[in-house]
Amino acid sequence: MKFKKTGPADWTVISAINDELKYVDSLAEIGRSDDFDHGVEGQLVTLGTLVRMAQDDWTMNTGPEPSLDKIRKVAAAAIRALMLYGCPRREVS
């Protein structure tokens, strides 16, 4: 099943996620990052928290913008977790 794409071009989305990753990396420079490794479990907690925040934004706001902001954060957090702990490849035939 295909869906109708209504969002920005793919490169715009990737650029926004890259900017979010840069932002997250900058947190260490201003003292907002943790001093220890939380592991995959900690990454899952972070992802779950961000997803709940996106759900709350969807419920409490008119329009998708606030929840899309959190979805960008979810995407960046997931990518960062894979960069830190490894990314198993999917075999595609």
Question: How would you describe this protein?
Answer:
- It is a single chain.
- The chain has 93 residues and is mainly α.
- It has a domain at 39-85.
- Helices cover 65% and strands 0% of the residues.
- It contains 3 helices and no strands.
- The longest helix has 22 residues, at 39-60.
- It is globular and about 40 Å long.
Task: Please outline the helices and strands.
Elements (H helix, E strand, L loop, with lengths): L9 H17 L12 H22 L4 H21 L8
How confident is the prediction overall: mean pLDDT?
88
- Tell me the Rg in angstroms: 15 Å
Please provide the count of β strands.
0
The description of the largest β-sheet is: none
**End-to-end separation:** 19 Å
Helix content: 55-70%
Secondary structure class reads mainly alpha
Q: What is the string of helix and strand elements?
A: HHH
- Our count of helices gives 3
Q: What share of residues are in beta strands?
A: under 5%
- Estimate the global geometry from the Cα principal axes: globular
**Stretches with pLDDT under 50, minimum 5 residues:** none
Task: For this entry, give a set of tags.
93 residues; mainly alpha; 3 helices; 0% strand
Write a compact overview of the structure shown.
This protein is an all-alpha fold and 93 residues long. The protein is built from three helices and no strands.
